[in-house]
Structure formats: structure tokens, C-alpha cells
Design goal:
Elements (H helix, E strand, L loop, with lengths): L19 H12 L4 H18 L7 H14 L38 H12 L4 H23 L5 H11 L8 H7 L20 E2 L2 E2 L5
Helix pairs in contact: 1-2, 2-3, 4-5, 5-6
């Protein structure tokens, strides 16, 4: 008795594996249909079937065109049928993808990253003196944190300040003594709330002290 089982090693290689062998057989069947209208009708039906096999594909011209392109690819670009889209050229299978354009911007200090340089540039454009000072403090905290992650060590505030001055081309600065005394570049530092004027009312036991006058 002959073995009628069909093994993968004896089958033709799948052209597009995501559609499976049955679709490839159906494409071959449609390819051999002699009547033009019947071949066209079966081709449209086959594209709809391919869409069901790939539910991730969404409706739309781009996805429908991909299905028709895949149909022609599976047929070896030899299927004679009027397609709603231009028939792809065989070169699409051997064409190399476009070369990615890499960012050639040279960072002065890689551990800070490009975003820090952009933030420094934005800070130099701030006209309000107090707002610019706040921006420098914010940058100092960020840069000190990044420096510590990269180098695994605590860095002196003077180093961070010098980097800010350098990267801003001297347009940003702050008094180093003030930075150290108030720990302005400490990443976990929070400014103390400002006290109001001399109209504070002293409390004892959660209640106001009443005047005898």
C-alpha cells in the first residue's frame, strides 16, 4: 500500500508563509482558470479570504493594495487579472530598504542627552530674570541626577554649573555660593513655602488665643 501522506519536505516552498499552503494552492488554481471574468471573480474572492486570514489588517486602500500585491507575489507575478491597484514589479522582493538617517548631532556630554541641550537652549531665550534663574535651578537638578546615574558618584555643584555655562555658551549662570548654601541643585530639594507678613495669628492647642482687650 502506497503512502499517501504529503510531507512538507516534498512540497513546494511557501512564498508567503503567513497565508499558509492552502492559499498558495488556491492562487495556483485561480492562475490556471482560462476564462478572464471567472479568473477575475475568483481573484476578488481570494483577496477577501486572505483578509480573513489576516484579521490584523484593517480596511483601507493601503491594506487592500497590500493584499493584492501579496496575491501577485504568491502567483510569481504571473497572474493575469485586472487589479484595482497597479501590479507590483518583481523587484519589490529584492529591493533594499531605504537607509535610515541617523542623528549625526555630536553631544558634548552624552550622559546628559540631547534633550538637556535643547532645554538649555530654551532657557537662554527666557527674558524674565527670575524665570530664567528657576530654569537654571531646574536644569542643575536634572543634570546632577543624570550625572549620578551615569557615573555612579556624587558630583560637586561647581561641575554642574560649569557644564551649564559651557553648554549655554555663557548665557546661563547662577551664584555658586547660593547654590551650595541652599542646596539648589539637590534633586530632592524642595523650596520652603514663603512666610506671610506680620499678621500671623499664634495658635495654642489648635485654637486662637483671644485677647483680653
Amino acid at each position: 500500500m502506497s503512502d499517501q501522506h504529503e510531507y512538507n519536505t516534498g512540497r513546494p516552498e511557501l512564498i508567503l508563509k503567513e497565508y499558509g499552503r492552502n492559499i498558495q494552492k488556491l492562487v495556483n488554481y485561480v492562475h490556471d482558470i482560462k476564462e478572464d471574468e471567472k479568473r477575475k471573480e475568483y481573484s476578488h474572492t481570494l483577496v477577501e479570504l486572505m483578509k480573513l486570514i489576516n484579521p490584523a489588517l484593517k480596511d483601507g486602500n493601503e491594506f487592500n493594495q497590500k493584499l493584492w500585491d501579496d496575491l501577485f507575489i504568491i502567483s510569481g507575478f504571473d497572474l493575469e487579472v485586472d487589479s484595482p491597484y497597479p501590479k507590483p514589479a518583481p523587484e519589490v522582493l529584492t529591493r533594499k530598504p531605504d537607509k535610515l538617517q541617523y542623528n549625526n548631532h555630536k553631544l558634548k556630554y552624552k550622559h546628559y542627552g540631547r534633550n538637556i541641550e535643547l532645554l538649555i537652549q530654551q532657557a537662554t531665550e527666557i527674558e524674565d530674570e527670575q524665570e530664567q534663574r528657576d530654569a537654571v535651578i531646574y536644569l542643575g537638578r536634572l543634570m546632577r541626577s543624570f550625572y549620578g546615574v551615569w557615573n555612579k558618584e556624587v558630583v560637586d555643584e561647581e561641575v554642574i554649573l560649569n557644564h551649564i555655562i559651557e553648554l549655554s555658551e555663557g548665557k546661563l549662570s547662577i551664584d555658586l555660593k547660593t547654590v551650595k548654601e541652599q542646596n539648589l541643585f539637590e534633586p530632592t530639594y524642595k523650596e520652603r513655602p514663603r512666610r506671610s507678613g506680620g499678621n500671623n495669628v499664634k495658635r495654642r492647642g489648635g485654637k486662637r488665643r483671644k485677647s483680653n482687650n
